[in-house]
Amino acid sequence: MILDGKCPTGPIETSWDRHRFNMKLVNPANKRKFKIIMVGTGLAGGAGAASLGELGYSVHAFCYQDSARRAHSIAAQGGINAAKNYPNDGDSIYRLFYDTIKGGDFRAREADVWRLAQVSNNIIDQCVAQGVPFARDYAGYLDNRSFGGAQVSRTFYARGQTGQQLLLGAYSALSRQVKAGTVVMHPRTEMLDLVVVDGVARGITVRNLVTGEIESHWGDAVVLATGGYVNVFYLSTNAMGCSVTAAWKAAKKGAFFANPCYTQIHPTCIPQHGEHQSKLTLMSESLRNDGRCWVPKKKEDCEKNPNDIPEADRDYYLERKYPSFGNLAPRDIASRAAKEQCDDDRGVGPGKRGVYLDYASAIGRVGEDKIRERYGNLFEMYEKITDENAYKVPMRIYPAPHYSMGGLWVDYNCMSNVPGLFVLGEANFSVHGANRLGASALMQGLADGYFVIPYTIANYLATVTPGKIKEDHPEFKKSREDVTKQADKLLSINGKKTVSELHRELGKVMWENVGMARSEKSLKEALQRIPELREEFWKNVKVTGTGPEFNQQLENAGRLADFLEFAEVMTRDALHRNESCGGHFRTEFQTEDGEAMRDDENYCYVGAWEFKGVDKEPELHKEPLKFENVKLAVRSYK
Amino acid sequence: MNLTLYVWRQKSPKDKGKMEQYEAKNVSPDQSFLEMLDEVNEDLIKTGRDPIAFDHDCREGICGMCSQVINGQPHGPQDKTTVCQLHMRQFKDGDKIFIEPWRARAFPLVKDLVVDRAALDIIIQAGGYTSCHTGGVADGNALPIGKDAADYAMDAAECIGCGACVASCPNSSAMLFTGAKVSQLAVLPQGEVEAARRVQDMTNAALASGFGNCTNHYECEAACPKGISVSFIAKLNREFLKSLAK
After folding, report:
1. Whether pLDDT at A12 is above 80
2. Is residue B135 a part of any domain in this protein?
3. Is 3.90.700.10 the CATH classification of the domain at A265-400?
4. Domain parsing of chain A, residue ranges
5. Do A381 and B85 touch (CB under 8 A)?
6. How many Å apart are CA A111 and CA A137, to the nearest integer?
7. Per DSSP, what are the bridge partners of residue B3?
8. Domain assignment of residue B112, yes or no
9. Which helix (H) or strand (E) holds A499?
10. Tens of pLDDT along B150-205?
11. What is the span of the domain harbouring residue B153?
12. What is the pLDDT of residues A32-71, one digit of tens each?
């Protein structure tokens, strides 16, 4: 099937404005009759639930954490982009649009990206009005910093905790609506099924994580803002509870999963230190503003104290390979470059999987105090984890799974192919193409939540009768039975391996074969291993306790069960895409100097997969990508 | 290193809990405290016993989910560090470690080390926001805010809402938590408009939820993983007095 994103045609500069006018509205007096289910309360979900509640809809919001304020958006450090051009350095909506399309290696939809760039400016205004304490200069005006993949300073920040401050802004707006009674919060509640009746999304089935009770909630529309899936690699920068479950349950009910092979491996993370490790910690990309990446030129220097290695024996590989962007090369490029150095046996630290990020020259230039002011909390965090003082010795960093550009397929209105099912933020696929630029995730989450879904959902709701199907419908009953059955099955296996042992094994298979570099051989290897692991899981996992109680092992087992199915689609997508683009790097498709080689003739499309059953091949649907405003070109940062 | 753990186990709010002893063997100093507990749990699962329930999520010290009292100190012995960022190099071979949940009337226990902190959400719902609508606000640079005020607001806004301040306070007071939010918004022109009503509503919500009052022990600041200063409690009191005059 050829998919249609239903993007507005005509001049792109006015596309969103024209589209907004053409969409249907819901009468203010009728809004409260519509019930909207919002799953996830991060930047997209929190902002969306707050804005929809404020408009007068009856919103029910769900999150697995104990409070909406804890969603993993909170961990974003560096900043949020906007085309304000406050520094007068040549920024514009067009430039942000262009950088994002190019940064995504020409695999995103133009119209969606234009809208994102356009509303980026509203986001900053909104957050300031909420009392988000963005960094300011001595004149009292908003300060900006630079980020990878851009040659202008357009990133707004709040120390090293921008995600936290933006999330707390959205959470405060959400709290205001909870108080007003327009939003009902359901914390410690996990979505375990999407209920679809006659092809239309009608509600969800959830598990109350405190009591273990399985309940259903009807809704005239269901909105998923449930984040990304890189915990499929086990070790990642995501929170422990992040999973593909909500999105995958929707996929199993007919929603197409788009570009699952586009995963972002973030270049600046603290290297792994041992087998017992449970997660990886990100150090903000903003560190590359002042830090310089290097490895020893000579293999024999790798064990030496880095401060004893003379300047002439250091290879500042990013500055060497990409002189115009240098240490601010985009994430996919910086990550691969780090891997290359380590593959060349010049990595440093335990296991020699690490490169230096050095502040000595920045400290020499602006002084230690200035560096402390800019990155103090990151240096502290680094010291807590590694016991090393990065003001004195260079940091060690290594790439780690961080973000998923792929996600559920949505049209321009953020609606999936299942009518009534909307998908926001990281959970959808729409704007980042094959690689996301730094400080763009916060931008997308808030854009979707504050400024897109409040308009586009009305266009859908205006066509439906509110409250037509409720929890007494047989499909809801069946959904509750299916969810209960799966929990009972997991608890009855009583095998020999724990959930985390099996998750670790899946992670290893995915990292080695479907990670930073992929080949036909490695992908085929993964396609063999994943079903074997899935089979082992369903025969040999051990989950203690019972269903109707607080049971964290049962939660984890359910999430891993979904990863074990999803991993296969992700691998298949990587195998079918015979090109390299952005975060998807196939070793067979590279230029002589190791850069990604795109194949626009054959792969300039969104690959959206339709679930056909476990152990069955999914069906591929394509949405061709047209570039009318940015010329398809080789993406160069040299 | 090898450690002996004494952990609070309580199956549900109705059960009577007790401390139980576990051995943590071959612990690496580079492990985080939670990774050490993960391994203890792996052993418990394999021997068919119920693993220790504890809250955690981001494991990078920012989400505020993790919440354990370690040897009598919320978040353990290291200054300005959440449990998830506490590493085992802070302990030595043979140590006995006592692990308990947050204890406060406003935080009912859920299971083992997990408590219900919904009362903190209720305080924010009472007024921890500016009542601006989505859209239709002024340009971000329309209103310059002095760097000092912006920095002060940011110092207050660093609160992660973990509740260690409450757990450490002999009165189970949430005044550091409340004071931080009240101060952040009171010092910014965007929040000043509603400052009087906000401080009243948030304080009342805290008292109604069962939190106590501040009697200047300063345990909260010492326990706070983000080093939120008790001066925000002074600011809270000042704002409260000011609001009475309005």
Report:
1. yes
2. yes
3. yes
4. 12-262+405-461, 265-400, 474-603
5. yes
6. 34
7. B24
8. no
9. helix A499-513
10. 999 999 999 999 999 999 999 999 999 999 999 999 999 999 999 999 999 999 99
11. 118-245
12. 999 999 999 999 999 999 999 999 999 999 999 999 999 9
CB contacts, 8 Å: A136 with chain B: 144-147, 150
Q: What angle do CA B105, B107, B111 make, to 5 degrees?
A: 120
Tokens found for residue A378: 């990151």
How many separate domains does chain B show? 2
Its pTM stands at: 0.97
Task: With H, G, I as helix, E, B as strand and everything else as coil, classify residue B85.
Answer: helix
CATH 1.20.1740.10 is the classification of domain A12-262+405-461: no
Partners of residue B15 in chain A, C-beta under 8 Å = none
Tell me, yes or no, whether B96 and B196 share the same domain. no
Give the Cα separation of B178 and B127 in Å (integer).
Answer: 10
Same domain for B38 and B69?
Answer: yes
Whether B80 is in a domain gets the answer yes
Give the strand pairing for B69-70 and B73-74. antiparallel
What beta strand segments (E) does A447-584 contain?
A: none
DSSP strands (E only) in chain B: 3-9, 18-24, 69-70, 73-74, 96-100, 109-111, 114-115
Among B56, B148, B187, smallest CA distance to A138 is for B148
Distance between CA A240 and CA A42 in Å, rounded?
15
Shortest distance between the Cα of A604 and any Cα of chain B, in A, equals 36
Could you tell me how many CB contacts below 8 A there are between chain A and chain B? 219
Q: Which of B210, B203, B222, B192 is nearest to B72 (CA)?
A: B222
Tell me the DSSP string of B99-163: EE----TTS-EEETTEE--HHHHHHHHTT-S--PPSS----TTSS---HHHHHHHHHHHT-----
- If you classify domain A474-603 with CATH, what class do you get? mainly alpha
Longest dimension (CA), chain A: 74
